Amino acid sequence: MLGFTLPLQLRCCHHLSQQPPLPNPISPKPFYPPVVPSVPRPRIGPGLRASFPVLSGSVFPEDEADVELGRLLALLPEEMRRRVSDHAELPQLIEVVMDLGRKPLARFPSGDFVISEYPITVQDIEHATAQVGDFAVDNRAGISRTLHRISAIRNRKGTIIGLTCRVGRAISGSAKLLQDLIKDGASLLLIGPPGVGKTTIIREIARMLANDYKKRVMIVDTSNEIGGDGDIPHAGIGNARRMQVPNSDAQHKVLIEAVENHMPQVIVIDEIGTKLEAMAASTIAQRGIQLVATAHGITIENLIMNPSLEMLVGGIQSVTLGDEEASRRGVQKTVLERKGPSTFSCGVEIISKTELRIHRSLEATVDAILSGRFPNVEIRKMKSQEQEEILDNGPVSDSSLQKNGEIMFEEITEGADDQTSQNELLFKLPVDLVEDSWEHKSPLSLFCYG
């Protein structure tokens, strides 16, 4: 019997090893989250907390913007996240500031809002930094597939002791006021103070050029603010391609590489700040490539007086005139003149998120400023999501300027130092006179002297 027992036992064991394990009747019942239409099923795991925001009154976000905002709020502890989510201005959240040993702040258009009565601890900083990407040399990091920017403050030993969590949004229609210039293929230089929306506008310009006008657009993204963090760019740039810059000091090299290797029709640059970057942009413009870039400054005069960026407007040189020429011009013998052609054809001063100042000819603006004259400027305002053109290089009428039965013809000129209403010339004409002239078919002409 021993000869039969051993093979039989082996066969039984082999047969049992192939059978699936029996279910455990006392095992806990698995949890399946509810499925909401048009929202993908969430994954169970550590990523769940970072993928969905804790919003009052809803479990899942309504659109992609809420998802991205929730991923930023996931950096905060539970109590802070709840207080931010309950704020009435949550969709307009600007940034969250976390400094070690201080109360955290959430900044909204209406002002700062304290989101916790307890100061930030080391554990709070570590919890936030563990959920973002690696910090680069410029102490900036991001959250993959989002436009948020996380900036770090370090102590002398290199330890992170503060975070500025800036909210990034892709706003459709933010470049509508510049649509005619974009369509004409003009090279645009956008200037404005930090936080006014320069990056948001050029991101939308890149999307419009790539999707609407079918151009080959290459974005040179220094801090991943245009295309977002991670290897896959954000959907806000449309079909435009993106080249990341490993080090901010190498941005001018990446600009030349983008032109030589990828044959773009448009180059989009964020934050031109050094002389090497200005020289690279000038070289690209000479090859006939459309440029869209931003630079820090408030007015065109700031670029003229900036030795590192003056090349963007053609460069400035001092010229000594002869006695006869100086007398003819009525100026001193030593004057400042533009050295060469401007890198950009148009300049845009961003006054606010709804108001722009357009310099259609950047060279003419620079020449006027250097000669002490007032350059022509075109002011455009966004009102009720519609484009409202206030000035077009001369007196224009606009239905929005009708007040008390009068049409106001407004001509705005801008000086180098004085940009107040003292430089505005207002011409008022009764509406009745205009209507009578049309009834009698007699031409009406307005002339401005002086």
UniProtKB/TrEMBL annotation:
Residues 184-315 form the AAA+ ATPase domain. One of its GO terms (molecular function) is ATP binding. It comes from the Eukaryota. SUPFAM superfamilies: P-loop containing nucleoside triphosphate hydrolases. Gene3D superfamilies: P-loop containing nucleotide triphosphate hydrolases (3.40.50.300). PANTHER family: KINASE-RELATED, P-LOOP CONTAINING NUCLEOSIDE TRIPHOSPHATE HYDROLASES SUPERFAMILY PROTEIN. This is Stage III sporulation protein AA.
